Amino acid sequence: MNLPALYEPQGRPPQLLARDTGTYREEDGEDAISVRFLFAMLMRRREVVVLTLALCVMLALVFTSAQSRIYSASADVVMITGDTQIAPEDEGEAREGPTRAEDVETQIQLIRSRDMAGQVLEATGLEEDASFRADVLEPRSMLDNLLGTVGLSDRQGASQEVDAATLRERAVTYLIKRIHVIRVGNSFNLRIEFSDVDAARTAQIVNTYARLYTLDDLQERARGSAEAAETLREKVAELSETANAAFAKVQAYRVANGLISSSATGLTEQEISTYNQQVASARAEAARDAAALQSARSQMAAGGAGNVGSAASSPVVASLRAQRAQLVTRERDLSQRYFDENPELVTVRRQISDLETQIAAEVNRSLQALSTQARASAQRLSSLLASRNGTRAQLGADNTALVELAGLEKEADAAQSLYRSYLEQLNKVVAGSGTERPAARLISAANVPGLPVSPNLTLNLALGAVAGIFAGALLAIVSEISYRGFTTMEDVEKRLNVPGLGAIPAFATVQPHSGSPLETVRDFPDGAFSEALRNVIVSVRYLTGGSGRVIALASSVPGEGKSTLSACLGRSLATAGEKVVVVDCDVIRMQLTRMFAFDNGQPGLMEALAAEDSPIPCYEEPESEMRIVPITRAFAKGERLTERGRFARMVARLREDYDVVLLDCPPVLPIAETRDIIACADATLLVVGWRKTTDRVVRAAMRLLPARARKNLGVVLNKVDMEKQVRFGGDDAASFYTQYAGYYR
User: Fold this and answer.
1) How far apart are CA 353 and CA 348, in angstroms?
2) Quick one: CA torsion of 209, 211, 215, 217, rounded to 10 degrees?
3) Which H, E and C letters describe 367-425, residue by residue?
4) Which residues form the Polysaccharide chain length determinant N-terminal domain (predicted)?
5) What is the DSSP string of 8-51?
């Protein structure tokens, strides 16, 4: 083929996408999903993101307008922790303010009580406020808030008719739900906060709560002091009578039981003590006498009077025994010298016998004396025991009376102590009445709030914007993932498994450009649009290895811009010095023929098919050297170009006369003859509308193509919006248009 050096085939160029077992794939080092890929999807669907964002922001605005405006006001009160009484009190009994956490919590619950809420209602007169009654009985709806935003809501007549008790209960509940009391840090400062839909009412209620709290304790204690004083006076009078009666009862009992002196039992106890000493002495003496008598009797029974010990003998017995001992000694001496009949010995023995008789008589007298003494000691002991027992009986009676007396005295003392205690308490209460000081004071009153705390317009709009961005991004990603159109050459090659031969921009999206695609090719042969056409031509020749002289341009469905692309390619080739002819093969639409406004009376495609021996009628395009075979006459109904091989023979003749033959074919899906026309070509360009035709449509068309045509089949994306394509991302040349757009100017 006679081509300029620029377009001579030099072998297949390096490709980013390589053929691997019939499937095009990305480079191994690139992730399937990357930040660039996600950003490209978002940019392709930025309208969805923007619309979703706007919708979410608008919904946030409507939602904010539909919410009740809540105003919040707060007042600070400080609890006084020192003595709250001016009058002095006893040590350990001084009344002080709360100091423990439990005490502070008690004060908080006091403020939030229903009783306090009732006092606030009475102090503010809110039960007579129609607006307050309406808010209590019929809370504002979202519609009321929306109408109120535009000034159409009237809440004055919206309240129900209820009895006073029900209204008060609901109003108290309304206040309790909206009052908040918190402790500021670890201090004794309490912050009273109230939230309501009315700013002025909010400040009024908070200040009333604070005022009542600071005065309520003072009034309560004053009222309590008065009530306590009256109660104590009655109690003191009653206790005085009780104490006097108890004292009189004690004195009467003393008189009745002879317990005039407090030491009435002292002498009796001393007498018993003396008796105890005497009894002990008498018991010892009686025991001694009894023991002596018993010993003497035992000795007497064992050995006679001579065997009785000295304890039972008198001095006379001792003298007699001494004499007997002398006589016994003399008798022993005499018996050794004389016989028994010796008168002296007999006399001595008779004297000894007389002494023994005297000793026995004297011993008997001593035993009688010991017996008498023992009986006297026993009688004395018995007498002392009887006297002591009588004294003890008297002491027992006295002690019993004293026990009863002690009980009566205790009762009297208790009554007297209770009387004195109540009397002292009465004196304290009377002294402290009128000297009470408040247990809390207001340190910061509430001001009427200027702006509501809820809803937060800025926050809601920000949340709406964030939600809109995420929702828009999600919708964009989902719609893009589910979108089956083609945006880049990468989409074409991955989903169709055929080469992408180039992207033809929409002429108005590139600079420079003229009023139409053909004019742009004519006026700016070195511009971006013309260069995109040349890129397609180069890709086709690399695809066919330089043998692609007959090129069929087809589309899956009508409206892909195939005829315009055929004309632009032809003009571009003619401008480069190529001998090129474009054949209008669409006998139904004849878009190419209408584009150049050929007359119906001129010879055209029908004549070229019929007269095989005469020259083919080719008309030169006025703006270039391109030739055109138009359809100047309508074919008969049912007549087709490829019947009896006429079209194939015509193409063969054109192949001999021209460097490039461009066949502008009808759409593949609606026209069956298109496949026969494509079979006559060396290469087929399947024109696909950018982001218009889905892959299902293109695959359906590809399945209808002849097997031979699929070998040299390539896809061209037509009408690419270059400004959007740059945002969409991709790996083809069109995706980087902004980086080289200034090169053509």
Assistant:
1) 9
2) 30
3) HHHHHHHHHHHHHHHHHHHHHHHHHHHHHHHHHHHHHHHHHHHHHHHHHHHHHHHHHHH
4) 32-122
5) S--SPPP-SS-EETTEE---TTS-SS-HHHHHHHHHHTHHHHHH
How far is 465 from 457, CA to CA, in rounded Å?
12
Cβ–Cβ < 8 Å for 642, 636: no
- Evaluate whether 571 touches 623 at the Cβ level (below 8 Å): yes
User: In this structure, what DSSP letter does residue 623 have?
Assistant: T
User: pTM of this prediction?
Assistant: 0.52
Cis omega (within 30 of 0) for bond into 315: no
Residue with tokens 């590809």: 702
Residue with tokens 């511009």: 527
Q: 674 has which bridge partners?
A: none
User: What does each C-alpha distance from 54 to 67, 376, 400, 565, 720 come to in angstroms?
Assistant: 20, 136, 104, 39, 28
Phi and psi angles of residue 310, each rounded to the nearest 5 degrees, phi first: -65, -20
Rounded Cα distance between 656 and 511, Å, is 38
pLDDT digits (tens, 9 = 90+) for 184-227: 888 888 899 999 888 898 999 999 988 888 877 666 666 677 77
Tell me whether strands 189-196 and 71-79 are parallel, antiparallel or unpaired. Answer: antiparallel
Neighbours of 694 (CB within 10 A): 17
Q: How far is CA 430 from CA 86, 229, 446, in A?
A: 13, 6, 38
The CA distance from 653 to 656, in Å, is: 5
For the stretch 717-745, pLDDT in tens is 999 988 887 777 677 777 787 788 778 76
Name residue 712's beta-bridge partners. none
